[in-house]
Structures are given as structure tokens and as C-alpha cells.
Recover the amino acids of this structure.
């Protein structure tokens, strides 16, 4: 995959975590879970502790594919 910012080849891998990873429009102190409007990238749990991702070493960005169950 080519980086959408600098057009260099990206390295395939995964983002992993023991807990929640989510996108929020209003940053806040971390609580116990998601609030209305939050988008879960990865839910805390025994399964699904990683999501497919691509890393660009040139501009130091990561693209995450949270819409698929497939893992690299």
C-alpha cells in the first residue's frame, strides 16, 4: 500500500493493545468505555486484540483498517 500523505511504500502489520482503542471527536479523560459518538477501533476483550495496519517510515504515520476481521 502506498502512503496517502507521501506516496512511499508502507509496511504491513498490526496495531495491538490490551484495552480499548477508539476515535473520539471530543478528547477527554479515559473512562470505562465508549460514549455516544465514539468509534471503536478495537474493543477490550480476550479476542480481537489487534487490527490490520500499515506504517510509513517516511512520514511516521499509521493507517488502520478497523472494518475487517482479517488480520495480517
Amino acid at each position: 500500500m502506498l502512503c496517502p500523505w507521501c506516496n512511499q511504500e508502507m509496511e504491513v502489520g498490526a496495531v495491538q493493545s490490551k484495552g480499548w482503542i477508539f476515535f473520539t471527536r471530543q478528547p477527554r479523560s479515559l473512562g470505562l468505555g465508549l460514549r455516544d459518538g465514539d468509534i471503536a477501533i478495537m474493543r477490550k476483550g480476550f479476542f480481537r486484540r489487534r487490527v490490520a495496519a500499515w506504517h510509513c517510515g517516511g512520514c511516521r504515520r499509521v493507517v488502520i483498517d478497523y472494518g475487517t476481521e482479517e488480520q495480517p
Summary: The CA atoms of residues 13 and 53 lie 5 Å apart.
